Amino acid sequence: MSQNKNQYKKEEYPLKTSKRKREAFEEGQAESKMIEEDDGKSSKKQQDKNAKQKRKVSIFWFRRDLRLNDNTALYNALKSQNEVVPLFIFDTEILDKLEDKKDARVEFIHLYIMKIQEQLKQVGSTLIVKHGTVDNAFKELVSEFDIQSVYVNRDYESSAKQRDERIKKYVKQSANAEFYDFKDQVIFEASSTNKDGSPYKVFTPYSKKWLSILTSEDYSCRPSESLMEKFWKSPERKVMSLEEIGFEKAGIPFPSVELNEKIVKNYDKTRDTPSIEGTTRMSVHLRFGTVSIRDLVRRSKGLNATYLNELIWRDFYMMILDQFPHVENNNFKPAYDKLVWRNNVDEFMAWCEGKTGYHLVDAGMRQLNQTGYMHNRVRMVVASFLTKHLLIDWKWGERYFASKLLDYDLSANNGGWQWAAGTGTDAQPYFRIFNPDSQQKKFDPNYTYIKTWIKDLNTKTYPKPIVDHKLARERCLQAFKKALGQ
Predict the structure, then answer these.
(1) Any known ligand binding at 312?
(2) Which pairing describes strands 145-153 and 83-91: parallel, antiparallel, or unpaired?
(3) Binding site annotation covers 315?
(4) pTM of this prediction?
(5) pLDDT given for residue 63 in this prediction
């Protein structure tokens, strides 16, 4: 990974590839051409005549909900009076920005699209899979079908909300179709958990409110799988192969979609030990909706309060992103805007490659680079090291994680990085600085995890520490105090 450090200004992120990946997986960060409005040449009479020749349908649009079971918008679509056409769009405005053609996330999505297709074939139906822009996909659908309505599950990223508003307007203008959206990604949206009309900014009172209003209805199943006969009947339509959409298999294993309840039961005891299988690895399935959040809450509620608390954190960060969209590219707390980051490119590259000389940091980064995954305890350590020890802007770290993580989710990734840097909502205090060596002694005392990922440990090729902990800690404290005027 060779980079010329002199070509970058201090505030610039040095890996433009990673930034582009991050933007792509924010579901529509790329600029999208607006759908051209009806030019008025087609009369209403002609439109009505054309509609009579088309099949009257509702569209269910898969996005971050790649499952046929317990799917809120799909359940409501299948209960409607029209037959339902299931749709997925491989959006080229996203895919064209992914320079790594072995991006595991695309493979993961394709795998679950094919699973859905097989299930639909069993009831005589088929997916319509488009490869192109979202705008053009809906133009083609309006041309082929007499669309009565479009059903989607809500997304809370600002770019996704803008995309949905655009499509809502288009289907209304071009087909007089309704656009229905539903809550499915979270248990509670902001309106349910507000305090006196304002969103919570601190997790503890938020979680107390979340738990106090939770009822069985909030996590009951929406049995969309029981209504599959309502899907349209059609010969199978071909789904493009992974290679045909321009990608290859990444060669990394994907975690099981089945929840391991034994791990859930022991989660509070095992979650901080990176050398064992002590976490459920459900994050990627929640990210792409191959599992229902309601199912996880329903099954974990009586098993382990600590595990349930992690699911509440997920709701919390999605609420923050929805209510405070500026956090996507800015500090949640403006008080930290005056912080002067060092942004040393050589040190950033050492961090990226797992060559800082700090064992737990390097093991985590090498695990990430090789597998697209990093244990959560280690994520906190490497994030703290980058932002506190090296004084490198958290946005650089967030972008790098975005380019590598299979389970990349903007709200959780952003929330985690701003927590580590001290700039976010309910973040750790700036003066709390993880000692990587102390963290290693506490959570990997026998070097089991470290030896798994650092093959050159205790050899001449393994680097010496790039920074002294005590000096870095003092430098960090001074920088934060200066920024805050203390």
Answers:
(1) yes
(2) unpaired
(3) yes
(4) 0.91
(5) 98
> Is residue 21 very low, low, confident or very high in pLDDT (cuts 50, 70, 90)?
low
- Beta carbons of 342 and 435 less than 8 angstroms apart: no
The mean pLDDT value for 345-354 works out to 99
> Which pairing describes strands 55-61 and 83-91: parallel, antiparallel, or unpaired?
parallel
Contact yes or no for 108/41 (Cβ under 8 A) = no
What average pLDDT does this structure show over 87-112? 95
User: How would you class 80 by CB atoms within 10 Å of its CB: exposed for 0-12, middle for 13-18, buried for 19 or more?
Assistant: middle
Q: Which two tokens stand for residue 272?
A: 């901080």
What end-to-end distance do the CA atoms of the chain give, in Å? 39
Q: How many CB atoms lie within 10 A of CB 7?
A: 9
Q: DSSP 3-state helix, strand, coil percentages of the chain (rounded to 5)?
A: 50, 10, 40
Residue 274: the pLDDT is: 98
Catalytic residues: 310, 313, 341, 376, 394, 417
State the amino acid at position 469 in one-letter form.
H
CATH number at residue 155: 3.40.50.620
Considering its fold, how many domains does the chain have in total? 3
Q: Is the pLDDT of residue 41 over 60?
A: no
Q: At what angle do helices 359-371 and 345-353 cross, to 10 degrees?
A: 70
- Residue 382 CA to residue 219 CA, distance in Å, equals 34
Q: Which CATH number covers residue 301?
A: 1.25.40.80
Domain of residue 349, residue span = 328-483
Tens digits of residue pLDDT in 187-204 = 999 989 887 889 999 999
- Are residues 287 and 64 in contact, defined by beta-carbon separation less than 8 angstroms? yes
Q: Is 135 annotated as a binding residue?
A: no
Q: CATH number of the domain that 467 lies in?
A: 1.10.579.10
